[in-house]
Amino acid sequence: MWTGRRSSASPEGWGARALTDQAFREAGVRRRIAVEVAGIMTCAELVRAGFGVAVVPRSHVRRARGLAWRPVAGLPPWGVSLVAPSGRRLTSAAAAFADLACATFGVTLSR
Question: Alpha-carbon distance 9 to 53, whole Å?
């Protein structure tokens, strides 16, 4: 799938890029990154336009019509964290968002 195909990717130095670069190196696959973009949906739009392929979270593909999602074996799990300032109380809006996120994903925020 990747051999000879151009792709879009997040910029070097970004966490997602570092993880996917490492996974491709370990698999012995060389990607041809033709463009670096900061937005995941921009990657998806480039794929839809026939530009090439991209590694994006499945949740984004579900929102983008005209794209097919295929799992890629060997990619490391990508964790997401909710961060909050230490030593300060959250604003009402931030606390409501944190509570919603924790309820949605079944996790607890240490406060």
Answer: 9
Nearest of 31, 30, 59, 35 to residue 47 by alpha carbon: 35
Q: Encoding tokens for residue 110?
A: 């240490």
What Å distances lie between residue 79 and 15, 16, 30, 91, CA to CA? 10, 10, 25, 25
pLDDT at 92: 92
Q: Which letter, b or e, does each residue of 69-92 get, where b requires 16 or more Cβ atoms within 10 Å of its Cβ?
A: eeeeeeeeeeeeeeeeeeeeeeee
Residue 102 to residue 22: CA distance in whole angstroms: 30
The burial class, CB within 10 Å (0-12 / 13-18 / 19+), for 111 is exposed
| pLDDT tens column, 3-55 | 677 888 889 988 888 888 888 888 888 888 988 998 888 888 888 888 888 88
Check whether 1 has a pLDDT greater than 90. no
